[in-house]
Amino acid sequence: QRQKDEINRQRAEKQKQLLINNAETRFGYDQSHKVIKSFKRNTICLGMPKKMVDFLKGKKFNLKRTVTKKGTTERYNYQSYISSRGNTKYRLEVDFRDGLVIKFQDL
SS3 of 81, please? Predict the structure, then answer.
């Protein structure tokens, strides 16, 4: 079991490094950029790409899309749980424009 856990940890670290490299290449972020620093601390921030948020927060739910002249905004919920009344609730709501975080809030 320990060996399996170690392999999974190494895979996650490798995937995390690939996402950092992609952000550096695609968006011109460097190691000192706030998005990279936040990602390394396992927290989301404004300007973070959707793939990084997905990696940190897991599966996304309930896409709500708004299309305007300014662009397309997508809203997702993350971290689902079942309430005491048996309803599905979410802990986090994140808005993206052009694949980058523009707003997030705890629910």
Answer: strand
